[in-house]
Specification:
The chain has helices spanning 3-7, 22-33, 61-70, 91-109, 134-141, 146-155, 157-160, 163-178, 182-185, 204-211, 217-228, 240-249, 268-293, and strands spanning 13-17, 37-42, 52-55, 75-80, 113-122, 190-196, 199-200, 237-238, 260-264. By secondary structure, it is of the alpha/beta class. The protein is globular and about 70 Å long. The chain binds nicotinamide-adenine-dinucleotide (NAD).
């Protein structure tokens, strides 16, 4: 069997955001190699031989609307990958870039997405524990307009203060909530997200700076390393180690996969889950023995 045929991208229309850099750039290179007609969007200029490159700020509804109106009538696969780190005072911007614009684009483009098409997002290990805010995320997801969502954000400063995490948790919630909803399932449109671990990309310096309480890149690097890498003597991934699997998820190879949050973190979040489960069962064992002794 020919590998390109298996992926199913040859001659198909693919729209991808964030393609100027990092994971999305790596994904775009592979999509081009696999024969897709790629329409790429980024706030920065994109120097890849795509069908059409759009330079637009996807935190702005008017700029999004302009690009969407120009995109082809039929889209086979949509990849929403643009993202920024969180700096104090940018809470609302982070929500718009890292989640709300992605929900908005998905729903605005739905009529153009082909039956059996796919939508794939980049969430994050940073969204781990998304279940805890699911009800709030669903409340936000169900608001019908951009304006109502902005008002909702204004009314929930406590949620968006943890800006990056909350936006990624909303993405995970969106995939979970919407994968079986009629507008997607009736047309067999698949929704999935990859959840990357620490990866060296254009965002690395911003992540380091924003993680340090003093805005010190070196200090931030150490904090991130302690959280994500030290526990398993780990190392940061390369952009293609996220971009390539994402291309597989959006392809025909995964034609029966939907609603999945795929952690690509060398097992880190599984080890967190394992630790939590063992701690819980330990308590239960202690409780059981206490009961037996009384
Ligand atoms: N790098 C990591 O460790 C890591 C880990 C988990 C998740 N992620 C997520 O992966 C995704 C890809 O990021 P990356 O790490 O490859 O970083 P990157 O900076 O290399 O790529 C992000 C792209 O998004 C674009 N972008 C930012 N704001 C935009 C806007 N307003 N409008 C249009 N485009 C905009 C940037 O110009 C850039 O090209 C992001 O959503 C990020 O949150 C990254």
């Amino acid at each position: 069997m020919e590998l390109k045929k298996l992926f199913g991208y040859e001659g198909k229309t693919v729209v991808i955001t964030g393609a100027a850099s990092g994971m999305s750039r790596a994904a775009t290179e592979l999509l081009l190699e696999l024969g897709a007609n790629v329409y790429a969007i980024d706030i920065n200029s994109i120097d890849l031989p795509v069908m059409k490159a759009y330079q637009a700020d996807l935190s702005k509804k008017e700029e999004i609307d302009q690009v969407l109106a120009d995109l082809p009538e039929k889209i086979d696969a949509l990849f929403l990958c643009h993202g920024i780190a969180h700096f104090k005072g940018k809470e609302l911007l982070v929500q718009k870039v890292n989640f709300y614009s992605q929900k908005y684009m998905t729903e605005k483009l739905l009529s153009k997405i082909a039956d059996h098409g796919s939508v794939t997002y980049i969430s994050s290990v940073g969204g781990f524990g998304w279940e805890q805010v699911y009800d709030k995320a669903v409340e936000l997801i169900n608001l019908p307009t951009w304006e109502e969502a902005m008002k909702w954000y204004d009314e929930h400063p406590e949620l968006i203060s943890n800006a990056y995490v909350f936006a990624k948790q909303c993405l995970a919630s969106y995939v979970t909530y919407k994968c079986m909803s009629k507008e997607f399932i009736d047309r067999r449109i698949r929704l999935n997200a990859i959840n990357p671990g620490d990866t060296t990309t254009g965002l690395t310096e911003d992540f380091n700076r924003s993680t340090s309480p003093n805005g010190n890149v070196k200090e931030g690097e150490e904090i991130i390393s302690n959280i994500f890498l030290k526990s398993w003597n780990g190392y940061a991934a390369e952009a293609k180690e996220m971009g390539y699997p994402m291309v597989v998820v959006g392809s025909d190879i995964c034609s029966y996969m939907s609603g999945q949050l795929i952690y690509i973190d060398f097992g880190l979040t599984s080890s967190w889950t394992s630790g939590a489960l063992l701690q819980k069962s330990q308590k239960t064992i202690e409780e059981i023995s206490e009961e037996a002794n009384t």
